[in-house]
DNA sequence: AACCCGGGGGA
DNA sequence: TCCCCAGGGTT
């Protein structure tokens, strides 16, 4: 008697033995806990997320706590995780839920996707993990697994390819155990069908994996087309007053490091112009060690300077987007990684 | 140094 | 509808 290979059965069987069941967001599961974890897990690996998740849930244990907190505090809990729009959107969505949707996450995929920060894949994950409904996800793990399983000959980020992968993902859904199945896919991609050195010998899908049959698993997924990245130059000014406080400016909500605190930044301006703009006296600046910060789309060459204001300067009061802060209190603030790195050098 | 990754917003 | 953007971590 011939049996047909069943993808979801194979995956679920593997999950029972080898899947992860002790992640923080798998304990006392609620839609809110699933939601926060899924947002943090966008672009970010489990091991990085865990400590942030613990701290975040301790401070914002439910939707009401998050909605009523101020955005700066939310961002300070996000600082270091990257992609700060996620934190802003999480806060914005919590407010929409708290004030307009009766305080609970909607149990409806269309409505979930209207909330800022929740796209199709995250909505699918919430529907499956929190509400046990039959929805597919298509995160990086699933894209990698399916690209290999079907030997997909194009970059999975390409819109046309992505569309096909969604269809595949939906076609493979089981008819029950949606939460387990969703977790199983993520676990397989994260722990076994990894980008480098996948453990094909222990893979439940090995017998029907097209890439494995071709003996070229590591050629999938096909890479993103390359682009050359521009290098940008920027100067940062570390201004210290007589109270050993540092001047930080809040960046605009849009763009790089939106809403986070940074050193005053300039590119070509004269020091005099910069001081003028900052309403501080022109003082000799000392050059500090430069360093580079790399993004996917560009590189940033950062040249910091330090300026110590003399006793004659009386501190101008803080404004909403401008603050004088003691080094030891700086940890409380939402700072991008290279700012934190420079602070640690001071 | 190259590569990875969900969603928003503008072209 | 497509392309660009964003940031820290891993390899």
TrEMBL record:
SMART domains: ENDO3c (SM00478). Residues 40-191 form the HhH-GPD domain. Its EC number is 3.2.2.31. Keywords: 4Fe-4S, DNA damage, DNA repair, Glycosidase, Hydrolase, Iron, Iron-sulfur, Metal-binding. Binds 1 [4Fe-4S] cluster. One of its GO terms (molecular function) is oxidized purine DNA binding. It catalyses: Hydrolyzes free adenine bases from 7,8-dihydro-8-oxoguanine:adenine mismatched double-stranded DNA, leaving an apurinic site. Its cofactor is [4Fe-4S] cluster. One of its GO terms (biological process) is base-excision repair. It is an enzyme of class 3 (hydrolase). InterPro entries: A/G_AdeGlyc_MutY, DNA_glycosylase, Endonuclease-III-like_CS2, HhH-GPD_domain, HhH_base_excis_C, HhH_motif, MIG/MutY, MutY_C. Adenine glycosylase active on G-A mispairs. MutY also corrects error-prone DNA synthesis past GO lesions which are due to the oxidatively damaged form of guanine: 7,8-dihydro-8-oxoguanine (8-oxo-dGTP). Belongs to the Nth/MutY family. This is Adenine DNA glycosylase. It comes from Methylophaga lonarensis MPL. The lineage of its organism: Bacteria, Pseudomonadati, Pseudomonadota, Gammaproteobacteria, Thiotrichales.
